Amino acid sequence: MELGRRKVENYKRQDSRSNLSHFPLPPSAFRFPPSTLHLFLYYWLPLIAYSGLIVFQSHYPAPESIPRLPYFDKLLHIGGYSLLGLLFCRAYRSRWPIASGRSLARLAVLSAALFGLSDEIHQSFVPFRTADAWDVLADALGAALGVGFYFALLSFSDPRPASTRIDKEDAFG
To answer: DSSP assignment, residue 44?
Structure first.
């Protein structure tokens, strides 16, 4: 490690006296790996903030401005928890990058579903709110849809070779 540091310092000294075109190391050699703080802020903070938003929203009575369409509240649960499932999967993938897609998907859906269950239990103690088992089911379904969407995004945007990519069969099959 010390020898490598000396080589870099020697190259820097040589570079200060010469042209950059003679610099033997590519600029990427001096990039530091992402810090723990950077990983936390980029992957985990959005998950924590969104979870806090859900808890904050469920602490108050249901708004009366929601349209009174049949099962509209279930669609809201599916939409909200699809984002939560996506954020869980994204955060878990940052922490365990070599884990299989199937295990990440299961863990993300389970985490979001348990969060939904705890949110429904919390709502049972809030005045003018009720807990509903169908909401927990809608939360789990939304989390599964969000995780599926996350893996679909990865399959379209991942620059890695196809042999190392997470495919649909690995995630769900």
So the answer is: I
pLDDT at 39: 83
Rounded to a whole number, what is the distance in angstroms from the first to the last CA of the chain? 44
For 6-43, give the DSSP string. Answer: HHHHHHHHHHHHS-GGG--S-GGGGPPPPPHHHHIIII
DSSP reduced 3-state for 3? helix
Highest mean pLDDT among 7-11, 117-121, 169-173: 117-121
Spell out a b/e string for 74-99, using b for 16 or more CB atoms within 10 Å of the CB, else e. beebbebbbbbbbbbbbbbbeeeeee
Pick from 173, 116, 131, 172: which is nearest to 149 by CA?
172
**Most confidently predicted of 23-27, 31-35, 129-133, 155-159:** 129-133
Contacts with 79 (C-beta within 8 Å, 6 or more apart), sequence order? 142
- Residue spans per domain, the chain: 1-31, 34-172
